Amino acid sequence: MKPLVIAIDGPSGAGKGTVASQVAKTLGYRHVDTGAMYRAIAWKALKTEINLDDESAVAQVAKRSRIFVLGGVVSIDDEDITTAIRTTVIDKAAAVIARLPQVRKILVNLQRELGHGGAVVMEGRDIGTVVFPAADVKIYLDASPEERARRRVSDQDHTAGTAGQASVAKAIEARDRSDTTRTISPLKVAPDAFHLDTTSMGIEAVVDRVMGVIQKKIE
Q: What separation in angstroms does the CA of 125 have from each of 60, 185, 205, 209?
């Protein structure tokens, strides 16, 4: 069986990262968090005091920066920012630059390079619809807004855990609105994706269901 390209999409707090990581580990595949790429560019733009609404300037940051996103580690220009990009400030900044067509074009090309040859589990919001529309397996994870807010608050790897659930829920609602209404590459379910509502499911059950879908493809 050829090495597969597995696309896992979904909104904030749906469990993409945890599921993608465990699936990749099980298969011996690479795990690529594409959302972290947008966070990395947002972090670099803020650090260098670039106006996030200046599309050309932000695109230049994306074009000139060396981004490393693999196995849970994120760095830009050799600086480890794995923890630094998991803040509410970066959440908002990443949502802003994710709406910039020039930036998306640059990062989508990079994502396609990373996924070339398969043996990759790539998570994001437009992997199965734009980045790899011909992905071998497409998964769309979702959950209720309330459950996604609860998960984000309890996420030890994200400093949103220091905020109240109500404020986190409001931030998630804003991000959902931004992701689904942007002109280019909006968040949506690919027609041929396996759509799984994980609201009442534990992580092990979700991973089992996703692995079941992948196993059918392998067989």
A: 23, 8, 22, 20
